[in-house]
Structures are given as C-alpha cells and as structure tokens.
Amino acid sequence: MPIFDVRHQARAHCILQRAMRSKRVPHAYVFHGPDGVGKRMLAVRFARLLLCVRPTHVAAPPELAQDKAVAWRDACGECEACRLTAAETHPDMQVVYKELNRYHPAPEVRARKALDLGVDVVRHFIIDRVADRPSHGHARVFIVVDADQMSISAQNALLKTLEEPPSAAFIILVVRSLDRLLPTTLSRCQPVPFVALPDAFVEEQLRAGRPALPHDHLRFLSRYCNGQLGVAIRQVKGSLFENKIVINRALADLPQSGPSPFVRSVQDCASSLADDYVAEMIQSGLIDKASETSGAEPTRRGFLESLNLAAGFYRDVMQIGCGRSDVVVNTDQMALLNATAERLPPEVAASAIREIHRTESDIVNNANVVLALEALAIRLTRLEGLPSDHGHLRSRKKDA
Ligand SMILES: [Zn+2]
C-alpha cells in the first residue's frame, strides 16, 4: 500500500510531504473533500509513514513527478510496524467511527443506535488512550472517519486533546465538508483538501476492477459519481444502473402515462436502492443485520438517490438542448434523451430540476414521501404541457 497509490491528490500529498521534510508534523489534521476520493486511504498510508521505523525515499506519481528536486517519502513497507498498519491491526493506530459504540464497555452505550459519533466513543477510544505510550514505535495515530458526524459534546470533549496533544499522538479527522465542525475544532487542525478525481481515471479504475461490465454502464457510473471513485465502486455492486433506466423511462413517458406510473417507479427504485445501502453497511461490517440501521434512514436515502437520478435525466436533456451531448451521463439511453430534448427546451428541463430539488428538501424535512412524489409528478406533467416558444433558439444552436 504505497502512499502514492492515492492518485490525483497533489495538494494533499504536498502538504503532508512538506511536513515530513520539515520534521514538524502537526498533531491534528482535518482531511476534507468529497466522498470516495482517497481521504481515508491517504490517512492510513500517512499513519503507516508516521509509524514506520525506517521511512524511505520513493519516486512520486506522474502528476507530482515534475518537481524532481523534492525528496518524496513513504513507509518502508517491510518493518513490523508497516506490516501491522497494512493489516489495520497496529496497536498504535486506532480508526474511530460512530459504530464503535458496539465495542464500548458500558452496556447502555452499546445498546444505542449510532446516530452520530458520540462523546462516549470519542472519550473511550481517543481521549482516554491518547496519552498512552506507543506500544511499538514512536507514535500513536487516531483516524476519525466521518468526523463531521461528531456530536457537539464530542467535539467539545476533544478540544483539549486537539489543543495540547501528547508529543507522540497524531489525530486525523476525515470529513466530507468543514461546515459541521465547530470553529474551535477547525482552528486546532491543519486542513488538507481533497478534490474530485478525473472522470477518465474513475472509469479506468472501474474497468480494471470489473472488465466484464458494459462500456455504457462504466461510463454512467464514472460520470454520475462526479469523480468519487469510492462511491462508484460501491455502486458497481448495487442496482443503481438498472434503477436509473427505469426512472428515465418513466420520466420520458410522463406526458402519456400521467403521474401514477412515475410515482410507482420511484417507490420501487427507492426500495431497491435502500436494500443496496443496507447490504453495503452489512458488508463493510458497520452493522450485523438490517434492523440495526437507524429507522427510516435507508428508505429516505433510497428516495433521495432516486430523485437524484431523475434530476440527472433532466440535466442530460438540458445538455443536449444546449448542444453538449458530449457530457451526457446516461449515454446508454441517448434515443430517449434526444426524443425528450426535442419536446423539452433546456429552460423547461432546468425548471424540472428545480422542482425535483424542491421535493428533495421536502423529503429531508420529513414530508409525506408519497404525497411529495405525487405533487412532483403533477408539477412535472404541467411543465411538459407548457407551450414551447424556444424551438427557434434550439435550432439556431444546432446550426452553430
Ligand atoms: Zn516500515
């Protein structure tokens, strides 16, 4: 697991490598950026470098290699510490996540559903252990996954540790966005930004893992997942591609079929996507069985994902209307998209996307899902019926 396995994150690598060279590595970092772009991967690799007893100089990946004067470092990969970190069994590396409550000594904490990363988990797995002497080498590293789910009290409890960490302790908070961290937490951590990966790289990585998957399926996942390779890899196993085909057909048929078939399609897709989500949680060891998920969360996620697919359909229609067929996500359904773009000008497709976003926020705010979907279907059908006076605009763009 070389550190430069984490690709296309030049800025993050440079920040960490500069700190290693200066021998003044900050004791608290916050790795922030989209899901599935290598934050956790780099956190584990950086921990391995900090714990390794014989760090070594290595060649940088192509996107960093232009800076030839710089010495890039990585763990040796051969010492006992490296072996244990690679297996994630190094006693001086602790990965902390909200579901760790299941291993807490107090039965009442174990019995709770892990809705957030609570203060009990943070106290027991970080604060109470941070001052322990490293059992093997010279450092102890704590990687807090989804640290933006830390409760306010957990963040407050951690403040003192972040402010005056023991000299051997390093804490890496891994978050999607910095918004949910308290300013006091943020001000004590060195930020390390991560960016979305190039579509072509995501597609290439997906193809390497699943060479038998049809080209259109791979292209859809790499484009739909916005450069989030980890998300795309999770979706390969699920039913996203099959579901989006159903939703797009239902949207294309909306003017003839009326609202009900669309509502039924979204309900079916949401339920199948919710099953994917639960299966993924079980597979990644976060829960043992479906009943351990937090209430209606999988279903809600399923509905939101289905609506995101629906918005993707109209986004493609809009792109075609603007002459940008090259960036279409649903390349396997071009005939359907072209036919829809013929009757829906880009402005109307944009209004449809706004209506879908409105429904998403209704669902997030606990609206009745079926009623919200019915209302959406009616509004979308009405949009379809609007007289189109933009035809000349579109044909002009096509000529250009
Ligand atoms: Zn080593």
Question: What's the short version?
Answer:
With 400 residues, the chain is of the alpha/beta class. The chain has 17 helices and seven strands.
Q: Topology of this structure?
A:
Layout: H1 10-22, E1 28-32, H2 39-51, E2 56-58, E3 72-74, H3 80-86, E4 93-96, H4 107-111, H5 119-127, E5 140-144, H6 152-163, E6 169-175, H7 183-186, E7 190-193, H8 199-209, H9 215-224, H10 229-237, H11 240-257, H12 259-283, H13 297-321, H14 334-343, H15 346-364, H16 369-385, H17 391-399
Parallel strand pairs: 1-6, 1-7, 4-5, 5-6
Antiparallel strand pairs: 2-3
Helix pairs in contact: 2-3, 5-6, 8-9, 8-10, 9-10, 11-12, 11-13, 12-13, 12-16, 13-14, 13-15, 15-16
The chain binds zinc ion.
Structure in words:
The chain has 400 residues and is an alpha/beta fold. It has helices at residues 10-22, 39-51, 80-86, 107-111, 119-127, 152-163, 183-186, 199-209, 215-224, 229-237, 240-257, 259-283, 297-321, 334-343, 346-364, 369-385, 391-399, and strands at 28-32, 56-58, 72-74, 93-96, 140-144, 169-175, 190-193. The strands form 2 sheets. Strands 4-5-6-1-7 form a 5-stranded parallel beta sheet, sandwiched between helices. A two-stranded antiparallel ribbon has the order 2-3. The N and C termini lie far apart (50 Å). The protein is 54% helix and 8% strand. The chain is built from 17 helices and 7 strands. Strand 5, helix 6 (152-163) and strand 6 form a beta-alpha-beta unit.
Distance between the termini: 50 Å
Which regions are unreliable across 5 or more consecutive residues at pLDDT < 50? 387-400
Bound molecules: zinc ion
Share in helix: 40-55%
Tell me the β content. 5-15%
Question: Strands of the biggest beta sheet: in what spatial order?
Answer: 4-5-6-1-7
What form results from the Cα inertia axes? Answer: globular
